[in-house]
Amino acid sequence: MSHASVPNLQSSSLPRSSSAQSPVLSGLELIVDRLGICECRRRLLHMLPGLLPAILLVVPHTDPWGPLLIGIVITISLGTIVFAIARKPDFARPNESLWHISVIGYSVPVVAMLILFPGHAELGLMTLGVLAFGDGSAALGGQLFGGRRLPWNRRKTWSGLICFLVAGTTVAAFNYWLDSHPAIPYTVALLIAGTASLAGAIVESLPIRSHDNFRVGATAALTGLFMHMLILGW
Length: 234
Hints:
Elements: H1 2-35, H2 37-47, H3 52-56, H4 67-86, H5 88-91, H6 99-116, H7 121-145, E1 149-150, E2 153-157, H8 158-178, H9 186-205, H10 212-232
Antiparallel strand pairs: 1-2
Helix pairs in contact: 1-2, 2-7, 4-6, 6-7, 6-10, 7-8, 7-9, 7-10, 8-9, 9-10
């Protein structure tokens, strides 16, 4: 009796231990298997700059931003550019010859909005949200979920486009609302950032393979600026 009960206790305890870890492990394994380790690094590099607004939540700053904060942002941007270019084999896709242009093009629209429009840092942070999490989620969602292809670009999927819109709009609207002075309703931020994210998503989905980051960032920035002026004036 006691001998027979031992295996039962062991067999019932093992599944509980493995099942507690399996959702996280299987999720990570699925992402790595679908995307590959290089693409996972690339997505991480693409999204990490988008954490800047979260840092600003705990860092006191004036409006408009002072030279110190702008200098820190520029320094971080330059450091990221140098790191990404120096470690190209870790992030670039096979036969990607314009990796340095892609990396620099990511930073230009964001930094330009912060410098050109002092007192309206929300425009630069909104652009960063669209680029980091909208554009970053398009490739991630498209490769993970697959599905029907876009009629105007067979290399892209509806799932990728939807992921761009959902992630880009959510993060960009929060970024815009967070640093708006004077404060505005979140619905207004959602309308402005959502339109910018939609424009960026459409541009990202076009069958054009060069200067992708710059095209998406510049489109989102200019669309957001137009919507800002249309709804809130200046």
